[in-house]
Amino acid sequence: MTMERPLWPVPNAVQLGWTTRQGGHSEGPFSSNNQAHHVGDSTAAVEANRADLLAEMAGCEHICWLSQVHGTRVVEAETATEGTEADAATVSQPGIAAAVMTADCLPVFFWQDDGARVAIAHAGWRGLSAGVLSETLQQFKDPTRVRCGLGPAIGPEAFEVGMDVVEAFSDWPGAQRCFKPAGSPGKWLADLSQLAEFWLQEAGVPAVYRTQACTFNDAEHYYSYRRDGTTGRMVNVIWRSTPST
Fold first, then answer.
1. If pLDDT is split at 50, 70 and 90, which confidence band does 1 have?
2. CA–CA separation, 143 vs 139, rounded Å?
3. Can you tell me whether residue 231 is helix, strand or coil?
4. What is the chain's mean pLDDT, rounded?
5. Strand order in 3-4's β-sheet?
6. Is the pTM of this model over 0.90?
7. Per CATH, the architecture of 13-240 is what?
8. Does the bond joining 32 to the residue before it have cis omega, within 30 degrees of 0?
9. For a disulfide at 115, which of 13, 23, 178, 206, Cβ 3.0-4.6 Å?
């Protein structure tokens, strides 16, 4: 198995999960289940890893692969071409997966309570502070009918940032609870998942589910750009199953 699936209460038609770094074909610093072409890994290894993943995704025929730029653009997965610059995707058509790659940044899953529409956002601190969650949530007519899940990301004990990051979230709900002083002067430890959860709750999302996994501290299972520099990427996927599954 190349994908972890959280025990979140999603509608029957909705499936989601994320890859780990285990069980793939890549070698060296990309060992072994790297899903990204842009990091310097073998093209053949990445394609083999992606093929294995798709074979494991029941009811999915296609994955929408984005070129992520730490922005706020959301695209329709049904019509986006591979390499489209965006940091979020939404989809209502069964059999097509919205996907974002991560290696410390926060993947945020969205699904409507009846399963009719799903979405996913790539939320590093820049995209998060710029409004990628707002842009993604706007793809749904009623935020009170949306549920969200927060996937593996760098944890609050590992994500050291400067005052520029603290200031970027100064007007966010509960921001003062999401930063604590680090050991170095002018440095803070930031809780990306908590920042996202507080914003989603303020926006009207009634339920936000989380995983406690930290990409930085779990080198066995997850890639971490901050920890390793040259490394692979996990992919986080959400889709509506085809009716036959």
1. low
2. 9
3. coil
4. 96
5. 3-4, 14-19, 234-240, 96-102, 62-64
6. yes
7. 4-Layer Sandwich (3.60)
8. yes
9. 13
